[in-house]
Amino acid sequence: MEEAKRYGRLGAFVVVSLCILATGLFLLGGRKWFQPTFMFETYFDQSVAGLDVGAPVRFRGVPLGHVAAILTSAATYEQSVPLDKRREYIVVRVEVNLSGQEAAQMRRDAESLAAKGLRAQTQLAGITGQQYLALDFLDPKKYAPLPFDWTPRYLYLPSAPSSAGEIIAKAQSFLASLNEADIQRLGQNINTLVSDLDTKLGEIPVTDLATHLQGTLKTAKSTLSRMDRLLADPSLKQTLDNVAVISARVRQMTDDGELDRLVKDLDDTSERLDALVGDNQYDVRAIVEDLRTTAGNLRALSESVKRYPAGVLVGGPPEKVQLPGHSP
């Protein structure tokens, strides 16, 4: 009995351990084995160097899946086709992780999306040079599907040439269009350009430029020295301190309200002066008239002294002077 119990406990331990191990594997990545997947394939009529199995697949930047296989059409669909009639396409198969509902919807909409311009295109990932597969909407008239004669194993999605491939193709076409005469003219133009540059550089008055530059540097140095002396002058610091003190006093007067009271006192004094002048306007006019009369008498006496100086000193009284503004 004891031996049977030990075997029973050992069997239970093994079963529990296997369950724990299976659960851990499932949580660490085994769950993808039970997730529905969606496969499609696309064909390229150019090199896909840099695109490897496992490379990411993105729809407008959103991760969608990964590259599952990279094959050739000759080995996949054209085994029985004569060599001179083979397409020699590159077949790229993609595994997309989708839910069952999303996979069914994509199968239904695949033809419409392709007609709308959905294309697969290889692109570079940053500066590393590694390529990934990008899905995006392009002009369907410009990027028509590649022709083929077989039935795809998976859902077919048309492709578009990569931007890097187009640049390389255009460069190769341009180089191929150049003939020997064009290359010779291009070399002659480059030689002429280099010669002209050399001549122009030789005509530059380097000595005069160096002289002017030295003069400018000396002037700048003298100006900086004067500024240093001015800033080092104690009177400048004292002036700035005085300005700071005056500014502080004015600010304090403003904060305390003294400046407002001073302005108000000036306004009151001006009003009082206006009222005083208005009340004594007649007296002021009489005083002004008397001053004018006195000034006239002094002017007449001065004229008499000039004409008869002896008569004024030893003679009789001077003749009566008729002042302006008085009747005889």
Write up this protein:
The chain is α/β, with parallel strands linked by helices and 328 residues long. The protein is 58% helix and 14% strand. The relative contact order is 0.06. Mean pLDDT is 78; it is low at 30-34.
Total of helices: 10
**Major β-sheet profile:** 7 strands, mixed
Give the H and E element order.
HEEEHEHEEEHHHHHHH
Annotation, overall tally of beta strands = 7
- Helix/strand-derived category reads alpha/beta
- Span between N and C termini? 173 Å
Radius of gyration based on Cα positions = 55 Å
Q: Order of strands side by side in the largest beta sheet?
A: 5-6-2-3-4-1-7
Helix content: 55-70%
Shape descriptor:
elongated
Low-confidence stretches: 30-34
Query: Which whole number gives the mean pLDDT?
Result: 78
Amount of beta strand: 5-15%
Write a brief caption for the model.
Helix content is 58%, strand content 14%. It has 328 residues and is α/β, with parallel strands linked by helices.
